[in-house]
Amino acid sequence: AIEGLKPFVAIYSTFLQRGYDQVVHDVVTQKLPVRFILDRAGLVGNDGPTHHGSFDLAYLGCLPDLVIMAPSDELELLHMIATAYELESLPSAIRFPRGNALGLEAMREQLGYDISAMPAKGTALPIGRGRYVKRADASRSKRVALLSLGTRLAPAMQAARALEEDADFGGTLGVTVADARFMKPLDMQLLRELAAQHDVLITIEDGSVGGFGDHVLHVLALDGALDEGKLRVRPMVLPD
User: Fold this and answer.
1) Where does the record place the Transketolase-like pyrimidine-binding domain (predicted)?
2) How far is CA 227 from CA 9, 129, 202, 238, in A?
3) Low-confidence residues of the chain: pLDDT under 70
4) Contact (CB, 8 A) for 189 and 221
5) End-to-end CA distance of the chain
């Protein structure tokens, strides 16, 4: 990186733990644009508990100036690889899970993508910008926001539709679904809108305590969004 090359470090999330000192001293402290590509993020099935990538959001999130991305699907992964490639001023990390991708049909049906084929390569994203995937109906009297990081986005969309159709709510509940895309830096405009326009905010991630949800709570507290006690925030993380 010092010589002007573009290093991509492809490694299991759980194995990067063994190189943590090098991440801190040799990359982050010097703000070198090394790109960490972490697969096996989250739970890994039969690979077993030693290989679960449960902790990367927590152990990387505390490091300064490290851009952290988590794609919700294969199209977003393409875009984030392009983003990391073009980012020359800071180190970055992209974390994605073990297992199969959604596929075009699922992305169209579950996430509302209007695409007929995967592009040959991705397009760089604005650093620290999330996106709305579904907005709550403004006519609903009760409003909940689901803020997802990574591949929990499709299940969050399924949950949103199920909640809105639940007869127990009598058509009064509207659910917004947003994709954070970045854990660092967080999209403050998106967070402020979700906090101001909803009664409940639920963060969703496939990582341990100390990760995405905690960073969201931290910035909301510093921003004063919790001062009046009107917004209820609940983080969903892996159990201890």
Assistant:
1) 1-104
2) 42, 25, 18, 27
3) none
4) no
5) 37
User: Residue ranges per domain, the chain?
Assistant: 131-238
Task: Name 165's Cβ contacts closer than 8 Å, sequence gap at least 6.
Answer: none
C-alpha to C-alpha distance for 145 and 156, rounded to whole angstroms: 10
**Nearest of 143, 166, 155 to residue 204 by alpha carbon:** 155
CA nearest neighbour of 178 among 169, 170, 187? 187
Q: Which of 73, 77, 2, 79 is nearest to 34 (CA)?
A: 2
The span from the CA of 29 to the CA of 39, in Å, is: 24
* Nearest Cα to Cα of residue 95 among 155, 19, 36: 36
State the pairing for strand pair 67-69/35-39.
Answer: unpaired
DSSP calls for 82-149: HHHHH--SS-EEEE--SS----HHHHHHHH----SS--SS--PPPTT--EEEE---TT-SEEEEEEE-
Q: Classify domain 131-238 by CATH number.
A: 3.40.50.920
pTM of the predicted model as reported, rounded to 2 decimal places: 0.96
